[in-house]
């Protein structure tokens, strides 16, 4: 044991031996990997080491047009006519193949995105498979899911996803779209394209009819070309509120359906009657694990005044034990920040918090000299007007406030532009129900945090977007009635 709270763990790196990465990836269009008409490629790097992992194609408008046309042809000729029970077989097959290749997918996710292997192995990949299993189950039961409503597919879904849960977000988008009878053009984020391209290989190997799913890579302009393509009938976007607003403007006046899952600034609320150790663990899980790279990260903490000293002491102790470092090490709690740009943004916010007069506390841990890393950071004595309380940081930075009454904490927790999620920690069931009805947040976790299930809808209020993913709500978003 080192010091009062720390142990030294021997390194336990996950092997990369079974990972097969090409040097260069083309666009997955019409069931094949094809060279981009743009003739351009860009590199994707490991944010923990700076190592170049592969080059991926940079799709331009003409490439997007090919992908959308492939999706449209597959929709008209094959997919919309196929009985639900046949569609389900393909979706199940994809789910099983994700399970079979789970280790490889998890390692690639951690290499490309920087998240700890524990997270990608235990959360991202199994949940991605579960989403395909769950929606496969609905494909032949749409009329039972929505009785008396004659559900019909929409056509081509254009899907744009961010870098924080690359494979899982692809699954959230693709599985319900296919179950509902739509075809897909999906674009992963530019910093994390590799697991989506591995998924393209799985989809090819699953025998899914050509063109039903097309996966293309590129930057924001590629995403914009998907959004603006006239043959796209539905846009599903997860990413920043800023880009969400651009997309909403872009499709105004068209009959495209849209779901937006945008930023968040979730409150974790600890009442004096809560199981405090459990609550502290939930707060740590909510903001520090996965580097705070979660839209629903619990980035604000409200602690009832009577237990504030105890909770903050326990929180600081727990922060000391967190291991920041190699994402592929099974002991790592906090991996690499996804990109230099993101690390700069987080550091800028830490400086803003200091300048605003909040009291900063960081773990005394060391961080690797190479790569993009950030220590878990706590800000005490913050107030509602502070930017670190109002704005999404998307890093391992927690802003703490105290409160006295339930009315006060509801008012403060709701008083931000976002409303994606929240956490409530209390021993009293009645208090939980009272809070869940008054919190303006799409998801309210009670005595737990960051728990996901394919059957449960997820989505936001206010600037966190609209529409729901997951569950029957997520299926309805890909249907017209
Ligand atoms: P983040 O801040 O999470 O990186 P972004 O909103 O910048 O979120 O990016 C999310 C996804 O949206 C990425 O795949 C990105 O390439 C894409 N994107 C960026 N700009 C646009 C745009 N104008 N139209 C469509 N997609 C875009």
Main sheet attributes: strand count, strand direction, barrel closure: 7 strands, mixed
- How would you sum up the global shape? globular
Order the strands across the largest sheet as they lie in space.
Answer: 14-15-16-13-12-18-19
**Which ligands does the model contain, each kind named once?**
adenosine-5'-diphosphate
CATH superfamily of the largest domain: Aldehyde Dehydrogenase, Chain A, domain 1
> How many structural domains does the protein architecture include?
2
Instruction: Work out the number of β strands.
Output: 22
CA distance, first residue to last residue? 62 Å
Strand fraction: 15-25%
Report the CATH topology name of the largest domain: Aldehyde Dehydrogenase, Chain A, domain 1
Explain how this protein is built.
The strands form 6 sheets. A 7-stranded mixed β-sheet has the order 14-15-16-13-12-18-19, sandwiched between helices. Strands 9-8-7-10-11-21 form a 6-stranded mixed β-sheet, with helices on both faces. The chain has 16 helices and 22 strands. The protein has helices at 61-79, 84-100, 102-113, 117-138, 142-145, 166-179, 194-206, 220-228, 241-251, 276-287, 305-320, 340-355, 387-390, 406-414, 429-438, 471-476, and strands at residues 24-25, 27-29, 32-34, 41-45, 52-57, 152-153, 156-160, 183-187, 213-215, 234-238, 257-261, 267-270, 300-304, 359-362, 377-380, 397-403, 418-419, 421-425, 443-446, 461-462, 465-466, 479-480. The model has no long low-confidence stretch (mean pLDDT 95). The longest helix is centred in the N-terminal third of the chain and has 22 residues, at 117-138. It is an alpha/beta fold and 481 residues long. The protein binds adenosine-5'-diphosphate. Adenosine-5'-diphosphate (ADP) binds at residues 160-163, 187, 189-190, 219-220, 223-224, 227, 239-240, 243, 246-247.
């Amino acid at each position: 044991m080192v010091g009062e709270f720390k142990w030294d763990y021997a390194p336990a790196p996950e092997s990369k031996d079974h990972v097969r990465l090409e040097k260069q990836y083309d666009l997955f269009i019409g069931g094949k990997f094809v060279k981009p008409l743009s003739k351009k490629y860009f590199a994707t790097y490991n944010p923990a080491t700076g190592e170049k992992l592969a080059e991926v194609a940079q799709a331009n408008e003409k490439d997007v047009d090919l992908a959308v046309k492939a999706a449209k042809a597959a929709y008209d000729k094959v997919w919309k006519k196929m009985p639900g029970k046949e569609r389900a077989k393909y979706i199940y097959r994809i789910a099983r193949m994700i399970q079979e290749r789970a280790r490889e997918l998890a390692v690639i996710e951690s290499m490309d995105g920087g998240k700890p292997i524990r997270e990608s192995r235990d959360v991202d990949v199994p949940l991605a498979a579960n989403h395909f299993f769950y929606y496969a189950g609905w494909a032949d039961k749409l009329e039972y899911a929505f009785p008396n409503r004659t559900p019909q597919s929409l056509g081509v879904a254009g899907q744009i996803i961010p870098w924080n849960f690359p494979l899982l977000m692809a699954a959230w988008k693709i599985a319900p779209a296919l179950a509902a009878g739509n075809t897909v053009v999906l674009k992963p984020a530019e910093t994390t394209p590799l697991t989506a391209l591995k998924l393209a290989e799985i989809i090819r190997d699953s025998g899914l009819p050509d063109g039903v799913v097309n996966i293309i890579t590129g930057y924001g302009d590629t995403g914009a070309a998907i959004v603006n393509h006239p043959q796209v009938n539905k846009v599903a976007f997860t990413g920043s509120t800023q880009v969400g607003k651009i997309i909403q403007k872009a499709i105004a006046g068209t009959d495209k359906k849209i779901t937006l899952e945008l930023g968040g600034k979730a409150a974790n609320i600890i009442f004096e009657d809560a199981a405090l150790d459990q609550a502290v663990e939930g707060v740590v899980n909510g903001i520090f694990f996965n580097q705070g790279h979660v839209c629903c990260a619990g980035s604000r903490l409200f602690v009832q005044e009577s237990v504030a000293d105890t909770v903050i002491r326990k929180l600081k102790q727990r922060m000391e034990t967190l291991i920041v470092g190699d994402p592929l090490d099974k002991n790592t709690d906090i991996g690499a920040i996804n990109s230099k740009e993101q690390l700069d943004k987080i550091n800028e916010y830490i400086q803003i918090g200091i300048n605003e007069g909040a009291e900063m506390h960081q773990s005394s841990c060391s961080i690797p000299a190479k790569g993009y890393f950030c220590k878990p950071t706590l800000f005490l004595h913050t107030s509602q007007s502070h930017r670190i309380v109002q704005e999404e940081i998307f890093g391992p930075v927690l802003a703490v406030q105290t409160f006295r009454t339930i009315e006060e904490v509801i008012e403060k927790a709701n008083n931000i532009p976002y409303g994606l999620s929240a956490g409530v920690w209390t021993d009293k069931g009645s208090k939980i129900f009272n809070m869940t009805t008054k919190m303006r947040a799409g998801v309210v976790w009670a005595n737990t945090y960051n728990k996901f299930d394919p059957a449960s809808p997820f989505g936001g209020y206010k600037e966190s977007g609209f529409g729901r993913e997951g569950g029957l709500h997520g299926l309805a978003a890909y249907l017209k009635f």
